[in-house]
Amino acid sequence: MIEGNLKELIVEALVRAKEAGKLKYSQLPEIILERPAEKSYGDITTTVAMTLASQERKPPRVIADIILKHMSPTPSWIERWEIAGPGFINFYLSPSFWHNQLLFVLNRGDRFGSSDYGKGMRIQVEFVSANPTGPLHVGHGRNAAVGDVLARILTFSGYQVEKEFYINDFGNQIELLGQSVWSRYMELNGKPVPFPENGYHGDYVYDIAREIIARKGSEFVEKDPAEVLPFFAEFASQVMLERIKADLEAFRVTFDSWFSEKSLYQNGSVAQVLETLKSKGFIYEQEGALWFRSTQFGDDKDRVVIRSDGRPTYLASDIAYHQNKLQRGFSKLINVWGADHGGYVPRVKGIIKALGYPEDILSVVLIQLVRLMREGVEVKISKRSGKLILLSDLVEEVGVDAARFFFTMRRTDSHLDFDLELAKSQSKDNPVYYVQYVHARICSLFREAKKLSIALPSPQEVDLNRLNSEEELSLIKELYHFPKVVIESALFLEPHRITFYLQNLASIFHSYYNKYRFISEDLTLTGARLTLAKGVQIVLKNALDLLGVSAPEVM
RNA sequence: GCGCCUGUAGCUCAGUUGGAUAGAGCGCCGGACUUCGAAUCCGUAGGCCGCAGGUUCGAGCCCUGCCAGGCGCGCCA
Fold first, then answer.
1. Which CATH number does the domain housing residue A493 bear?
2. What's the first-to-final CA gap in chain A, in angstroms?
3. Which of residues A78, A93, A108 is at a domain's end?
4. Which of A39, A83, A401, A432 could join A64 via S-S bond, C-beta 3.0 to 4.6 A?
5. How many CB atoms lie within 10 A of CB A170?
6. ipTM greater than 0.90, yes or no?
7. Which nucleotide has the shortest C1'-to-CA distance from A436?
8. Are A294 and A347 in contact (CB under 8 A)?
9. Is residue A536 situated within a structural domain?
10. Is A526 within a domain?
């Protein structure tokens, strides 16, 4: 990266200036290079002169001038520099530098934007983890999209990523599902029993009951409920889990592992970890229950792990689960949760610390609510089921591409208004189509060129000096910026940076496309512009891949 | 009452971890297709960045206090 070279140049200048007695700083300041707010301010800017101002007791612009006077002879990739505003030093890079960057994009191809930033780091992303007690709804959809896109971004950034789904296949919820299905089963067999309070009312509960009748007939009707309920619970949760898997797969989301909560009880790890924490003094007994001393880690109150009747709470398995994750040796854990679970963050961080690990090994990405909007009004309830809108319904209506794009279009910590009509519309208003259209357009361009027997020139023969307009250089600069966007998305766990980048790139391209013609009688110019189009196509495809959104050749 | 998140143009949102004149899309108004895809582009207008203090060369961003909305505050998950 060019930034490294530039930093060295500035550091050398600072050192020389100090040796010459022009500057007196005691410690070399950190050189921060950034992209200027406006194009006219150059390609790279530094604020170093301003940060030095107070300790040098000189105006920033004077310091900037001293620094520049001590710079070594201008390297060829710098066209010029200037002092601007309160004391920025702006660097303008030469066109040939940018032309080389374009060749670099083509050379890297589908690897352009990838890095070894996370090299040697194993990172786990746990997401969705919906209870297998009902189908996925749109809230899970946003979680699934964000988690999956994060995993893709991290993978592209060199991390070794494992995607995991934690299955809550133990405890109250599952029992309640079993009872609900059993009740429907009895009802369908003409022997109605009271439906459990807080039971699951969805149609899918009937579906499962019918499935059991189809497979097993009515053999359970006369049996003792206590004897058959475990079967109902087990069967129902299996069916739901299969359905969840199918919905996710249709949403282009797959997992490397499916971790069973129940297994933590079966292999004794819950009991074992509670014993460990007890010996460390983090677990105590009170009022007949066992408590986790989470207040020691910033939680509001201590939390029960084993109830006075001896049944564990979900927190018990969460402790064992996170111990298990930690023991698997990940350098970083990411939990993607709904915002309604925000209150659990302190206690899970507490678990991490109590187990003797640094708390920042875990990052929790909280996803705020999704509001589905149709023509300006919120859609709360599905007409078909009378319940929450299902992910599968949404996908059926707007398609996977639009759903994934929209779900990752906002920062995770802000609410998302999902405009259904917009997501379906085939116009520039719809950002998905707007972006995909660029890809299709470029593909169309190459089809047209082929028709005219014009081939994309090789990097050796292309004359990129023909790309000298401001728009062409801007386009290349935008491509050049892509790897940085990927790394920042990975670093801050912010997928929306990719969607915004795509929209911006698409806008610059469309604008260019309307102003200039790619194919003309000037064959060297045509070759150069086709090379530019190829670069845009590559970056577009790579970025869309990160979102799990298709890059269509025709639309 | 306490905790977390949010508050930026009429609407939906960005804002490069504290930098230059706060940006984009939609909507409004006005323009551009006999030429590579008009599913596109160009232009105009629109702002006490919730309010009030503070920190410093500099604050939409950091600190404090208010106001408003969302979510959470169980021996439920």
1. 1.10.730.10
2. 36
3. A93
4. A83
5. 22
6. yes
7. B39
8. yes
9. yes
10. yes
CA Rg, chain A, in Å?
A: 29
Which two three-digit tokens encode residue A341?
Answer: 């679970």
Q: Which nucleotide is nearest to A440 (CA to C1')?
A: B37
Q: Which long-range contacts (CB under 8 A, 24 or more apart) does A115-121 make?
A: A115/A156, A115/A157, A115/A158, A115/A483, A115/A486, A115/A487, A116/A158, A117/A157, A117/A158, A117/A159, A117/A487, A117/A490, A118/A154, A118/A157, A118/A158, A118/A159, A118/A160, A118/A490, A119/A158, A121/A158, A121/A159, A121/A160, A121/A331, A121/A332
Residue A550 and residue A396: Cα distance in Å, rounded?
Answer: 16
A272-312, pLDDT tens digit by residue?
Answer: 999 999 999 999 999 999 999 999 888 888 999 999 999 99
CATH of the domain at A45: 3.30.1360.70
User: According to the model, what pLDDT value does residue A190 have?
Assistant: 94
Q: CA-CA distance, A165 to A257, in Å (whole number)?
A: 6
Instruction: Write A299-302 long-range contacts (CB < 8 A, 24+).
Output: A299/A346, A299/A347, A299/A350, A300/A346
Give distance CA A123 / C1' B58 (Å): 39
Q: Are A408 and A146 in contact (CB under 8 A)?
A: yes
With beta carbons less than 8 A apart as the criterion, state whether A185 and A213 touch: yes
- Which residue range forms the structural domain that includes residue A511? 427-547
**Comparison of pLDDT for A160 and A203, the residue scoring more:** A160
Find the mean pLDDT for residues A259-275.
96
Q: How many domains does chain A have?
A: 2
Q: What is the pLDDT of residue A543?
A: 98
What is the sign of the dihedral through the CA atoms of A316, A320, A325 and A326? Answer: positive
**A441, closest nucleotide (Cα–C1'):** B37
* C-alpha–C-alpha distance, residues A148 and A155, integer Å: 11
User: What does pLDDT average to over chain A?
Assistant: 93
Q: Is residue A539 part of a domain?
A: yes
Q: Which residue has the tokens 């990405």?
A: A365
For residue range A506-544, list pLDDT tens digits in order: 999 999 999 999 999 999 999 999 999 999 999 999 999
Q: Which residues from 81-110 of A have any strand B atom under 7 Å from their CB? A: 84-86, 88, 90
Measured CA A343 to C1' B2 distance, in angstroms = 12
Q: Is the CB of A452 under 7 A from strand B?
A: no
Q: Helices A225-250 & A203-216, crossing angle to 10 degrees?
A: 120
What would the mean pLDDT of A195-199 be, rounded to a whole number?
Answer: 88
CA distance A536 to A142: 28
Q: Cα dist. A125→A147, A155, A191, A345, A492 in Å? A: 7, 11, 46, 16, 14
Residue A485 lies in a domain: yes
A259 touches A266 (CB < 8 A): no
Give the pairing type, strands A122-126 and A160-167: parallel
Angle, nearest 10°, between helix axes A391-398 and A225-250?
20
- pLDDT score at A326: 96
Beta strands (DSSP E) in A404-458 are 416-419
Domain boundary among A73, A93, A113: A93
Closest to A489 in 3D by CA, of A153, A261, A102, A62: A153
Q: Answer whether A547's CB lies under 8 Å from A115's CB.
A: no
Q: What is the pLDDT of residue A379?
A: 85
